[in-house]
Amino acid sequence: MIRTLLAAAMAGSLLVAPPADAAPAKVTDPARYVDPLIGSAGGGNTYPGAVRPFGMISWSPTTTAGDQTNAAGANGYAYNTPRVRGFALTHVNGAGCHPGAAGDVPIMPFAGDVTSSPTADTRDEIYASNFSHDNELAEPGHYRVGLDSGATADLAVTTRAGVGEFTFPAGKTANLLFRVSNSLNGSEDAEITIDPATRTVTGSVLTGAFCGRRANGGINNRKSYYRLYFVASFDKAFSGTGTWVNDQLRPGATTASGGEGYATGADRAGRGSGGYVSFADTDVTMKVGISYTSLDAARKNLSAEVKPKDDVESVAADAREAWSKQLRSIEIAGGTEDQRTTFYTALYHSFLQPNIASDVDGTYLGSDFAVHRLARGQRAQYGNFSGWDQYRAHTQLLALLEPGVAGDFAQSLYNLAQQNGGVWDRWVHVNGPTHVMTGDPSAPTLAGFYAMGVRNFDVRGAFDSLVRQATVPHPSGLSDAGCPGQCEGQRPNLAEYERLGYAPQDTCHCWGGAAETLEDATADFALADWASRLGRGAEYRELMPRASWWRNTFNPAATPEGGYQQARLANGSWVQPFSATSDVGFAQGTSATYTWMVQHDVSGLAAAMGGPSVAAARLDAFFHRPDGSWATGGDGFRYDPTNEPGIHTPWLYNGLGQPWKTQETVRAMASLVYRTGPSGLPGNDDLGTMSAWYVFAALGMYPQTPSRAEMLLSSPMFEKAWVKRDDGPTITVSAPRASATNIYVQSVSVNGKATDRSWLPEQVINGGGSITVTVGATPNTTWGKDLPVDHAQH
């Protein structure tokens, strides 16, 4: 009908076309679409408490299932176990160990008399309280909950400090318990000092031990690497004080010390220290500052960020505005209410990390446990790097949206490496090297930053350091300490790797030889590509051939159906028996998943499988069950959207000449495993990685290679999106007919010029531009035949 009306109008007819449907309005208040409870059930391991973008402090509940040496949720909070024993000051979003990390200094409003040591309450029967989610409010920068005990906690934060307002029922003693030793993983030491004269409570906890309870090497991580200091001041005088150590309550005391250790259950139960302050009032305001360097720094952080007249309302309002500004880095128009909620919550989770670890005056705790100052030009020191996870999606989103933060983060990792004997650890918690997972993720992370225009770090110093790590064996590479899950060698048994061209399963001192080979090939490609950008020919020539060493663990005769990645021994033989569903030689994944982990050489992988059509048919079987339904996890032979090794695979169809299958697969996974509600994430958020995947999927683009800037295209979910690069150029993505049914790309134009490429070049990502995607309900199998360019040598 519209065509008829337009033709009539052009012919001079008096008919007037009815106005087209109004363009959808741009979201102007993205913070209202954020639901911090998404991911707090079903294994997402998120937390709902008050936090700012990249904040040091994150004030959130620690819920309990009846074991004080554990928590109901991996990162402190489990939606389905609404019983709280405190509100801790630090958290890590979505980490996969249980318990995860941090959860330092839980502070509990308790209504009643303190008559026994809270540490002796090993099953959290006395000094904890149930609550109803009907009495809970979680929003960006603000958290409030009414407890069944009658007490209420209302919390808001700045970057390094917070304000809490606590109310108590009349007729019962009002107390705040400071469980200083009760970090999620326990503690080596803790101490508290109460000063009634100044109405302050100060203290610290010496802790760490991330993943220290895992069976696969975790005991090696039962060690401390940071001390968190806190300073809390109150608006009301104390009517009483007390402390405790282990099972001994000390009414009237003002000091205590003692840690819990890093064990669990009976080996730790009943150990620890803390203190409490009591009030004659039923409402109390507390202001708290934290630091990783000293009590004095915690005081300065509090003084600089929380003003005398600030209260929860004013701090929460400022936090909401900070979040709205941050979330407007991507503005969208269109989509459903649920899609907007899922999208902006994913973007929110992506901005929770890395976490600022430096004080307002520029001091920070190094990996050598000494206090340092920021490098020249560095604005902040950051901690928390889940490298094995984040380099596959999160770090690229960070570089795209916040290149300034990405550069400071790159400098932060370089600083920590210099303080760690030149070793870039693959999983940094705050400042501490934990060795968790496998591979060398800092190489693709920093190379990707550089490719995406990030320059505000010591580029040549970091590059040289990473090349040295990749080419000069380190003594730790021959150690089995922490293996398999937390092997200390960052490039394990590098000399043997260089001699054989692969990581041998029997002598690699790593989690899995085939996985290590794939990770190192990815890292070596990243360094070689970075070397070419820097004009470093010698490093390029040395490292680029190693980017193809994935071929040395690809066994073309692994099964009658085709080749797979397979663990290999130092004598050259394949580890037998072999199954594509086995995890022998791999880390948190199977051969069926890891075989696709060659993003930098998709054409080479396709050729090894028998050609693009054969590879595409194998992908079809990877994504679909025998009955044709989508695979969404739980089957080692097929796609697992809950973990990182294969999250790039939906986009591989672009490199095989069948991009319409990328479009339907990405959209299927985004709708099947991402949703609103507490169980809305498919797996551990892993410091924003799973959330970043969804952000890219909604925009209709994804990094072709972790260490470069090209983006593979799928179909956008929103009719329009404006992607803003931190005051830099804007990338505008338009898909006027985007909907739940119009999931197939019909045509694409970039800056007004039609293109048959199923990817965006680096120039668009770094220089900005306008992308228009025409979408429809049926596949266009002729668009996108121009294959993405691999940059590996063949």
**Mind summarizing the main beta sheet?**
12 strands, antiparallel
Structure annotation, total helices: 18
- Helix/strand class: alpha+beta
> Count of DSSP E strands?
35
Strand order of the largest sheet: 1-2-3-5-6-7-8-17-12-11-10-15
Beta-strand residue fraction: 15-25%
| Spans of at least 5 consecutive residues with low confidence | 1-20
The whole-number mean of residue pLDDT values reads: 95
Share of helix, binned: 10-25%
Alpha carbon gyration radius: 27 Å
Q: N-to-C terminal Cα separation, in Å? A: 54 Å
Shape: globular
Keywords: Hydrolase, Signal
GO molecular function: hydrolase activity
Protein name: GH92 family glycosyl hydrolase
How is the secondary structure organized here?
Elements: H1 2-10, E1 50-51, E2 58-63, E3 83-88, E4 107-111, E5 129-139, E6 142-147, E7 152-157, E8 161-167, E9 174-178, E10 189-195, E11 200-208, E12 224-234, E13 240-245, E14 248-251, E15 255-257, E16 273-279, E17 283-291, H2 295-305, H3 312-327, E18 330-333, H4 337-350, E19 355-356, E20 363-365, E21 371-373, E22 382-383, E23 385-386, H5 387-390, H6 394-401, H7 403-418, E24 427-429, E25 432-433, H8 442-451, H9 459-471, H10 494-500, H11 513-534, H12 537-543, E26 554-559, E27 562-565, H13 591-594, H14 602-609, H15 612-623, H16 659-673, H17 689-699, E28 701-703, E29 711-713, E30 720-724, E31 730-734, E32 744-750, E33 753-755, E34 759-760, H18 762-767, E35 769-776
Parallel strand pairs: 31-35
Antiparallel strand pairs: 1-2, 2-3, 3-5, 4-9, 5-6, 6-7, 7-8, 8-17, 9-16, 10-11, 10-15, 11-12, 12-17, 13-14, 13-16, 18-30, 19-22, 20-21, 23-24, 24-25, 26-27, 28-29, 29-34, 30-31, 32-33, 32-35
Signal peptide: 1-22
GO molecular function, one term: hydrolase activity
InterPro entries: 6-hairpin_glycosidase_sf, GH-type_carb-bd, GH92_a_mannosidase_put, GH92_N, Glyco_hydro_92, PNGase
